Amino acid sequence: MRPRPLARQHRYITWLSLSLMSFLALMVLIVYESRWVYPEIQAYFSQTGNLTGQQLATRSRAYLQDAQSELLIDQPAQAALDAAIINIELAYGLFDVHVYRRQYECTEPGLVSLNRVLAGLALREFDRVAVVDELFAPIQCLTHIEMHQLDQRGAAINNFSESTRQHNQVLTYSSLLIFVMGLVFWWLHERQLRRTDRATQDTFEWMQRAMRDPLTGVGNRSALHQDVLAKQHQSLGLILVDIDYFKQYNDAYGHPQGDTLLRQLATLIGKTLNDEAQLYRLGGDEFAALIFCPDTETLKSYCRQLIEGVRKANFAHPAHSDKKDVTLSVGGSCFVADEATFPYAYEAADKALYRVKTAGRDGWQVTEGA
Ligand SMILES: Nc1nc2c(ncn2[C@@H]2O[C@H](COP(=O)(O)OP(=O)(O)OP(=O)(O)O)[C@@H](O)[C@H]2O)c(=O)[nH]1
């Protein structure tokens, strides 16, 4: 069956909201997963509680500059000299780093220079100005290290941020792509569903048409069989109706008028039997009706109503052998619907109809105990 428009709309909304929800969920996940990135960069590069390569150099340089200041004091007191030595030793300790030795050529000469200064100071054999001057080379080296370390740190931060941003972008576009692909698949799926629905509907309509008599619009012989099977185990009455002298009617009025009479009788029979009755045209001038039949008396009553109804309708029949109007011959039988019982019920109703025909037509008969 083709889905009702509202049901289809509901399905569209459900699909769309589900896709949107999964898309949003994906985005939230991405944001949640990447939330640590920036604080992490900060934490990593600032290394709270630890000294970075740049900070070591800065401190070392500061110690050396302090030592220079202490050495430049006129007539330095012993305390100032000791402080200068300590500062140079501290500076040495921070300067003597494996990474500096490996990365910066000026490290080794700088450390040698500091060693020489320390040795001179220890022996008290030094020229203050010459010592201060000698300290400039390590200070310059440390400044170079500082600047280079700063640059490295900045570049690393930038690289890290950039690659994180790129990853985020890839994730965002991928989720967008997944979302769009989901929509496309959904659309293809819907289109396929619609096609299948349409094909099913077409098949259903064709089947319906194949079950209908095109002239009168009532069911045909196949529909009668199908309905009997659909009403299995129900007590039914089968009524067979045949128009009397229809050949003569056709001969008198022509086939188009004969067709009109067939349509009129189909309507009349349908109205006379109640709404629960189902009417079929078995071919030619023969109709059949299936009706709920709790007992034979009910069936007889319907047969009687049919005959009287046609009589009252007064459809003119100029070629009728002994009446002026169209008359019907009706035969009926009751049965419990089943594939096996139906042929017997049909035969019984047909025999009843035959008896009416041989008895002079315009009447009804019911075969009991079929
Ligand atoms: N107009 C019209 N006539 C049809 C159609 N189908 C069959 N007929 C005619 O119906 C007539 C049936 O004739 P018979 O079977 O001899 O029945 P009858 O003339 O009613 O005779 P009894 O049943 O013995 O009273 C034939 O002349 C068929 O040509 C149809 O679709 N339209």
Automatic annotation (TrEMBL):
InterPro entries recorded for this chain? Diguanylate_Cyclase, GGDEF_dom, Nucleotide_cyclase, Rev_trsase/Diguanyl_cyclase
Q: What is its EC number?
A: 2.7.7.65
Ligase listed as a keyword: no
What reactions does this protein catalyze? Answer: 2 GTP = 3',3'-c-di-GMP + 2 diphosphate
Q: Which residues cross the membrane?
A: 12-32, 170-188
Q: Where is the GGDEF domain?
A: 234-369
User: What SMART domains does the annotation carry?
Assistant: GGDEF (SM00267)
A Pfam family that the UniProt record links to this protein? GGDEF
Asked whether the UniProt record includes Membrane among its keywords, one would answer yes
Keywords linked to the UniProt accession: Membrane, Transmembrane, Transmembrane helix
The enzyme class is transferase
PANTHER family assigned: DIGUANYLATE CYCLASE DGCM-RELATED, REGULATORY COMPONENTS OF SENSORY TRANSDUCTION SYSTEM
The molecule here is called diguanylate cyclase
Report the source organism. Vreelandella boliviensis LC1
